[in-house]
Write a structure and sequence with these properties.
There is one protein chain. By secondary structure, this protein is α/β, with parallel strands linked by helices. It has three domains: 81 residues, Winged helix-like DNA-binding domain superfamily/Winged helix DNA-binding domain (Arc Repressor Mutant, subunit A, Orthogonal Bundle), CATH 1.10.10.10; 112 residues, 3-Layer(aba) Sandwich (D-Maltodextrin-Binding Protein, domain 2), CATH 3.40.190.10; 102 residues, 3-Layer(aba) Sandwich (D-Maltodextrin-Binding Protein, domain 2), CATH 3.40.190.10. The strands form three sheets. Strands 3, 4, 5, 6, 9, 10 and 11 form a seven-stranded mixed sheet that branches. Helix 5 links the parallel strand 3 and strand 4. The termini are far apart.
């Protein structure tokens, strides 16, 4: 065997992307260069790592086993790098954060300066729905999670990051009343929902249950971005977090519909397992967040106070 770390990394990227073309783009290489390296790597094994059916590449069972081992090797190499930097007094390691989908409008702003100050840290941020975020935290796969609803069945510690506001939203053709609507409006309008498991869906349903409101679900979509575009196009209305609507509200594509009892308020929180022993990297980020969150909020999210 005479494979290189570069070949291991390249093979892992092909496994991740399930495409030589996409792997080449990610690695800033040409497709022929990636194909040649894959062939050189394959030549060192008697059992196929991949197979081509039609024009699509598939990873064999043996290839998946090799990928698992390759990832372990790469992780160990990174550990050597982290230890080297630690001996030089440089904070290093991995910071793993899972973020609910709307949180992508928030979390990067609270990470940027920290990452710039600590070049030895590798950030892994997964953006997904609430159910998957909580599952990854429960399985101890991440250091932190960003959520707007704290799970009741999991012992966590938390730090408030930013206030969360949700409003009833319509498109530019919506005619707004001079006064607020009462909650009966929800019995009359077609509503667009997020999918089961999303935090926004949970907030909506909790609000309706508490107020004895029966609604008309027009359709269900899997991302806030998809919901936003559906509302803009006139397919219906939705209750949405303000944080992802700044541009559309400013240019008039969307409008906030005034309803008694709105906005629905909560807080965006960074949470972590209560009994977890935080790594030096995690501790440093938490210290940074506590120290800098107010100035970051003032710099990037002051516009929220206008609504």
């Amino acid at each position: 065997m005479n494979y290189t770390l570069h070949q291991l990394q390249l093979f892992l990227k092909i496994v991740e992307k399930k495409s030589i073309t996409k792997a080449a783009v990610e690695l800033h290489l040409t497709q022929p260069a990636v194909s040649i390296q894959l062939r050189n790597f394959q030549d060192q094994f008697d059992i196929p790592l991949t197979e081509i059916i039609g024009k699509k590449i598939y990873i064999t069972e043996f290839g998946l086993e090799i990928a698992i081992t390759a990832q372990r090797i790469i992780d160990e190499v990174k550990t050597i790098d982290y230890k080297t930097m630690a001996f030089k007094g440089i904070l290093s390691g991995k910071l793993k954060i899972s973020v609910v989908s709307t949180g992508k409008y928030i979390m990067p702003y609270f990470l940027t300066d920290f990452m710039k100050k600590n070049q030895g840290i590798d950030l892994m941020m997964d953006v997904t729905n609430k159910a998957k975020v909580i599952k990854s935290l429960e399985n101890n796969e991440v250091d932190f999670a960003l959520v707007s609803i704290v799970p009741n069945d999991l012992k966590v510690a938390s730090e408030i990051v930013l206030e969360n506001k949700l409003y009833l939203i319509g498109n530019r053709e919506t005619k707004l009343p001079e006064k607020q609507y009462n909650k009966a409006i929800f019995n009359e309008i077609p509503l667009i929902y997020r999918e089961e498991g999303s935090a926004t869906r949970s907030v909506m349903e909790n609000f309706f249950n508490l107020n004895g409101i029966k609604t008309k679900m027009k359709l269900q979509l899997t991302t806030n971005e998809a919901v936003k575009q559906a509302v803009i196009s006139g397919l219906g209305y939705s209750i949405m977090p303000l944080i992802g609507l700044k541009n559309e509200l400013e240019n008039g594509d969307l409008k906030i519909i005034p309803v008694a009892g709105f906005p629905i308020k909560s807080n965006w929180r960074l949470i972590w397992l209560k009994n977890k022993s935080l790594s030096p990297v995690s501790t440093a980020f938490l210290d940074f967040l506590r120290k800098e969150k107010e100035s970051i909020s003032e710099k990037y999210f002051q516009w929220i106070n206008a609504f």
